[in-house]
Design a protein that fits this description.
By secondary structure, the protein is of the alpha/beta class. 32% of the residues lie in helices and 26% in strands. The chain contains 4 helices and 6 strands, in the order βββαβαβαβα. The longest helix has 16 residues, at 67-82. Residues 13-122 form the STAS domain.
């Protein structure tokens, strides 16, 4: 059983991670908006600085994502790509996935229904080599 470690804890958001099959699963619990989105980038930078390169951004506990939050995901993706890493996103919320569709970013990411599904195969190479035109 993996050990979950908190990175960010505030009134509005908790961000924690664990490592599963070579993937660092970054679980976000709370709304991602103009007030909380900087925490996403902060957490990704911290993990990258610690040597984590292959991330699963678990949005299964995120009830709301606005355009500023989407911008934080894109900014984080660029940082992961600079480290020749990979990023997968999990969410079973049609409303959340619609934000990626409306923005035209849905095809730029690999989406999974759960972290278990996203981590079944170990990462291989750079999953973002051709992002966002993969």
């Amino acid at each position: 059983m993996a050990m979950r470690t908190n990175i960010i804890r505030s009134e509005r958001m908790v961000i924690s991670y664990d490592v599963v099959n070579g993937w660092t699963v970054l679980e976000v619990d709370g709304e991602i908006d103009v007030h909380t989105s900087p925490r996403i980038t902060e957490a990704v930078i911290k993990l990258l600085d610690e040597g984590h390169r292959h991330l699963v951004l678990d949005l299964c506990f995120v009830p709301f994502l606005d355009s500023v939050g989407l911008g934080a995901v894109v900014a984080s993706t660029k940082r992961i790509r600079e480290r020749e890493g990979s990023l997968r996103i999990t969410s079973s919320s049609a409303r959340l996935l619609k934000v990626f569709e409306i923005s035209g970013l849905h095809d730029a990411y690999e989406f999974y229904d759960s972290p278990e599904e996203a981590t079944l195969q170990a990462p291989s190479g750079s999953g973002l080599a051709h992002w966002p035109h993969g």
